[in-house]
Amino acid sequence: EKNPTLPLDHILRVEAGQNTTNFLRTRDKKTSVEQMSFSVVTSDRSLDLIASSIPAQKVWVKALRLMMHNSKDEAAGDSLQGYLNKIWNRADEDRSGSLTHEEVCKILESLNITLSKAKAKDVMKTYDTDGNNMLDKEEFLAMMDIMLSERKEMATIMGGKTEWNAGDLAAFLREQGGGAPVTEDFAMSEIRRLSEDPNTTNLTVKTLGLLLDEAKNAVYNPVKLLEGAGGDLAKYMAHPLTDYYINSSHNTYLTGDQLQGDSTVEAYTAALQRGARCVELDCWDGAPGVPEGNDGSEPIITHGHTLCTKILFRDVIRTIKNTAFAPPANNPYPVILSIEMHCTLKFQQKMFRIVDGELGEMLYRLPDDADATMEDLPSPEELKHKILLKGKRVHKPDEPDDDDDDEEEVESTPRAGNTSQRGLQPAMSFTGKSKKKEGHDIDPDWSSLISLAAVKANLEKTGKPFEMSSFAEGKTKKICETQNGQFIRYNMRQLSRIYPFGGRIDSSNLDPCPAWGAGAQLVALNFQTDDTPMRVNRGMFLQNAGFGYVLKPPPLLAKGQPTPPMKLTVLVYSCQRLPKLGNARDVVDPYVKVEVLGAGKDKATKQTSMVQDNGFNPAFNDGKGEALEFDILMPDAAHVCISVWDQDVGSDDFIGVHSVPLLNIRPGIRHVPLDDAHEARLHMAGVLCKFTIKELTPAEAKMIRPVDSIRNLVAAPAPKQKAAVDRSLGFSPDAPPGASSTILDSPAELEGGAEF
C-alpha cells in the first residue's frame, strides 16, 4: 500500500479469534491457531493476524485495545502543548534535540505553511538565539508560538485590539451565551488558565484563539450530545419505537458497489459499532462450495443477481450476536434485522434453527395476543439488548399484502464470470427498465420469529403497531410531494423504512432529510460510502450519545407546532491547522462549503473563495469573514453540513467535514471540528464561523415559500373537500393556468390543521 500505517482512531474494534470473512473462508480448525489469531476491524476492512503464541495474542489484543482507549482520551482532551510536542517529535527524526534548516522547512511544509527557503532561513535566524544555525526545542516552540498568534480574523473579532482585559472577555462571553451572566472574576480565571500564567491580566490573540478553538466552544449544542439529549436517558428512551429516528444501514454486508462488491461479516461489525441499530440481511439458498466450505445446506447472504461475493447467514448471525451490544461502543439499545427473504422453505427452516439457537433469549418475540391487544410497540428502554426480526410472516386473512421490500427495477443482462464466490444466480444490470419480483412461501417456524411484520403500506388505514412497510426512494419522493400530511400521520403510528433506488450501483446514498421531515424512522444508507447524505446521517445520530435512537421533533409526534421559517447566516472567518492530504507535497488551497439539506425546497449549497497555499491559518476576506446566507422553510427537518476542500486541477480534494441539525447549532462565534472520511476527528483542526439564526418576517417567508410546498403540508383531501382546501391555499378552481395565488403567512393558517 502507498501508506502502510493504520491510525489508531480509524480502528473500530479488535477481535480475538477467527471471526472475520478472511478467517472464516480459510479457517484453520486447530484450536491453538484460532486462539493465536486476532483481527483489527476498521470501517472498510480488516487486518487479520496470527501471533506467534497464545500468550502473545493476548498481549497484542490487550495492548491494542488499551492504545485505542488512550487515543480516544487523548483526542478528547487534545491540548496545544500536546499538539506542539507531537510536531516536535515528528520534526526531530534523528532525536538529536535540534532541527537543521532542512528539517525546519520539512516540518513547516507538513503543517501546510508556505515559506521559501530564504524566508525559512530568516525565520531560523530570528529564533536561533545561540547562533548555531539550528533550533532546539525551546527555540522551535517560540517560533511556533508566534505562528499560532498570526490570525487575521482576531483583529475583526477583537475590534482592532491586540489584547482584552477581563471586562472585555466577560462582555464577549455574555454575548456568546445569549446574555447569560458572566463575571469578570470568571473571565480572569479563563485568561490565566489559557495563558498558563497565574499573574497575567490580559487575553492575547493567541489565547483568544485557543479559547475559541476549544471543544467546549463547538457549534453542536453539547447538551444534545449527552445521553438522553441532556435529560434522563431512561425517560428519553421510554417512548414507542415509532417515535424515534433509527440509524439504519442498507445492504450492510457490502463493502463496495452493488454489482461486484465484496460481502463481509465485518461490515456488520463496523455498522453496529458506528451506531447502526437496523442492519439488512439479503437471504438466499446456498449451494455446494458457495461460499467456500458450504456443503450446500447453509443459507447465504449476498446481493442477488450480481457478481457480489457470498457469505454464510450463520456467520452473520454470530457476528451480530457478538458485536451488536459489545465494546468499545457498548450500545445496549435494540437492533432490528431487516430480512429480505429469497430462500425456499427448506432453507428458511435452517435459518430458523440458526437464529433460534444462536440468539435465543436475545430475540424479541411478539406476545401471543399481540394481534388483538398491542396498542404500541415497546420502547428502546424496554428492548435493551434485544434483537428484533423484520420480515414477511405467514399471511393472515386480515393482514395487508406482503411488502415490496427492496423490489428493485432491473433489466436481465447475462454477465461473464461465475466463481464459487461470485456466481450462483444469473447476473442483472440495474437500468430501471423492467421489474423482476420474486416471492416465496413463508415457513411457519420462521414466521414465529418475526416481530416486525413487513406489509404493503396503506396510508389511509391504521395498521397493527408491529406492521411496518418499506418504501423505495422514488416512491418516497412522490409521497412526500403529493401526500406528505398523510405520510406524517402514518409515521406517527407505524414504522417506515426507506431504501435507495436500485440504480445506485455505485453505493451512493439518497438524501435522508425529506423522509425524516415526513417522520420516516428508518432511512437505510450505504455505510461504506462517505458522501454528503452519510455525513448528514452521522450529524443526526451524534445526538443522544450516538446510541442510534433520536426522538423525532414535537410536530412529528403531534406534540407541538412547527418551528417558524428561519434565516441562517454563516460568517466563515478562518480554518486552523488543516492536515496534509495523504503523501501530497503541495500545501493545500482551502475553501469552505456550507450545504443545507432539508425537506421540500430547503436545499442549497454555497462556498467561500479559496485561500492559496495556506492550510495552517487561512483567513477568508482578509480575516473579515465571508457571509453565506440561507432561508430555511422547515427548520425542524434542516441539517447543515460544513466541509473543507482543497481546490485542485480536475477535481477538488475532501479534507474534513462536520454536520449538525440546524436547531442544534449554537449561535455566536463557534469552532467547527472536522472529521475525515473514516469518521475520525482531525486533531486540532477546524473552522471558525459566526452563526446567526433569526426568524423570518411574514413578508420574507412569503418570498421563499412556494405554494406547492404549502400544499404538501396538508393531508390529501377527499375529492369533495378538494375545492375548499384549494381555496384555503389561495387557488381558484376556475382560475386559468398561471393565475396568481395568495401565499399564506404560516402553515398554521391552513384550515383543518396543518402538518409539519
UniProtKB/TrEMBL annotation:
The segment(s) forming the EF-hand domain are 79-114, 115-150
Which segments show compositional bias classed as Acidic residues? 399-411
Q: Which PANTHER family match?
A: 1-PHOSPHATIDYLINOSITOL 4,5-BISPHOSPHATE PHOSPHODIESTERASE BETA-4, PHOSPHOINOSITIDE-SPECIFIC PHOSPHOLIPASE C FAMILY PROTEIN
Q: Which CDD domains match?
A: C2_PLC_like, EFh_PI-PLC, PI-PLCc_eukaryota
Pfam families cross-referenced by the UniProt entry = C2, EF-hand_7, PI-PLC-X, PI-PLC-Y
All residue ranges annotated as the PH domain in the record? 1-69
Record-given protein name: Phosphoinositide phospholipase C
Ranges for domain PI-PLC Y-box come to: 460-556
> Mind listing the UniProt keywords for this protein, alphabetically?
Calcium, Hydrolase, Lipid degradation, Lipid metabolism, Transducer
SMART domains linked to this entry: C2 (SM00239), EFh (SM00054), PLCXc (SM00148), PLCYc (SM00149)
Stretches of Basic residues bias are at 386-395
InterPro entries (alphabetical) = C2_dom, C2_domain_sf, EF-hand-dom_pair, EF_Hand_1_Ca_BS, EF_hand_dom, PH-like_dom_sf, PH_domain, PI-PLC_fam
Does the record carry Lipid metabolism as a key word? yes
Single annotated GO MF: calcium ion binding
Question: Residue ranges of region Disordered?
Answer: 373-442, 725-756
Q: Which residues form the C2 domain?
A: 549-676
Q: Which organism is it from?
A: Hemiselmis andersenii
What is catalysed by this protein?
a 1,2-diacyl-sn-glycero-3-phospho-(1D-myo-inositol-4,5-bisphosphate) + H2O = 1D-myo-inositol 1,4,5-trisphosphate + a 1,2-diacyl-sn-glycerol + H(+)
GO BP terms: namely: lipid catabolic process; phosphatidylinositol-mediated signaling; release of sequestered calcium ion into cytosol
Q: What is its EC number?
A: 3.1.4.11
